[in-house]
Amino acid sequence: MTNWNEIRDKSKLFTHVNTERESLFLFQRSSLAYMGSPQAWEKIFVFSGDIAYDLHTENGIGGDNFTRQMEPVIAYVPYMVIAGNHEDDLKNFSNYKNRFVMPDNGYGDNQFYSFDLGPIHFLGVSTEYYGFFNEYGHMPVINQYNWLENDLKQADANRAAVPWILSYQHRPFYCSNENSEECTSFENTLIKSGFEDLPGLESLYLKYGMDLGFWGHEHSYERFWPSSGRQIFNQTSNPYHNAAAPTYIVTGAAGCHSGHALFENPPSPASASRINDYGYTMLHVVNKTHLFIEQISVEAGNQVVDQIWLSKDLQHAPKPDYAKTQQFIQFPEPKVCNPRDVQCRGKYSHKKRNPASF
Fold first, then answer.
1. DSSP state, residue 107
2. Per the database record, which ranges form the Calcineurin-like phosphoesterase domain (predicted)?
């Protein structure tokens, strides 16, 4: 039997959060208590966008106040961020770009980057180049895509040393929130699948066998079964062992100015767990073959409300050739699409959104 207390003591810890006011106090308290422990150097924090609602509020005073509140934690622990749509300040993300220094990607741009830590290759990816391509042009999307393919190719070739590939980005490919059109919107289908000369991201993630992806944007927590190309791989006794496709988690539940997010019913067959409590996600990196993920509910007194193990054999990667050998169920066909998407005009009804429409 697994001794979780022993594993917790030995594991590296990665906390993935989108923290705003409701979660900030307990997040600070639990994090500060950890700073004095021997494992503190093994911890990093990742924010997947919409960092302060907004960094540029009142000419940057909002961002100043937020980062001061975070300073007791982020002064000692690596603080990795990626831009969300709320980081757009109508000045090409200038507040975001000038506040944070991220790993160099060769483009002088902190909106996408990568780094290795322990057995994980981390990828920070911008979805906002897609969301704002009308404002800032096509080249940021294309530059990131070319960089991403080269980076993933190298990471895939290095799996013997660094076996896991993990990405984090702001906007999701999939979600099932009632109060959002995001997962049938033109922007999100563009991010996932591409449009005209703009390439989507999912094909690269599948080609190079990305293991795990974290998303924000939706103000809720939603864990998906391994999914790719409108196929859901949950037909084995443990779909998260030697997964046939990437595992995706929406972790945007740390607080919001617009209240709790609601979910559509019935759930999509791709959705394994949905929680709209305010909280944050912790990833415990146990070793080269095992990861443990917990969702912490602030509203439930910092209790664990969801947890899963991701495990795999060394050198396993969830690539299409392996997926072809596995059983799956198909996503239901979408019933709606955004009228801006000329590829689906006339193909589907625009009258009513279907919960399985992603």
1. S
2. 43-221
| pLDDT tens-digit profile, the chain (358 residues) | 333 333 333 344 444 544 444 455 555 555 545 444 445 446 888 999 988 888 998 899 989 998 898 888 888 888 999 999 999 988 889 999 999 999 999 999 999 999 999 999 999 999 999 999 989 999 999 999 999 999 999 999 999 999 999 999 999 998 888 766 666 666 678 899 998 889 999 999 999 999 999 999 888 999 999 999 889 999 999 999 999 999 999 998 877 777 778 888 888 899 999 998 988 899 999 999 999 999 999 889 889 999 999 999 998 999 999 999 999 999 876 555 554 555 554 444 433 333 333 3
* Residue 46: closest CA among 86, 97, 83: 83
- Tokens 């500060």: give the residue: 32
CA-CA distance, 133 to 146, in Å (whole number)?
16
Torsion of CA 271, 276, 278, 283, to 10 degrees: -10
Contacts of 278 (CB under 8 A, 6+ apart): 22, 23, 253, 254, 255, 260, 297, 298, 299
Sign of CA dihedral 156, 226, 278, 10: negative
Q: Residue for token digits 């990833």? A: 283
Q: How far apart are CA 246 and CA 219, in angstroms?
A: 22
Question: What is the identity of the amino acid at 345?
Answer: R
> What is the C-alpha to C-alpha distance for residues 254 and 235, in angstroms, rounded to an integer?
32
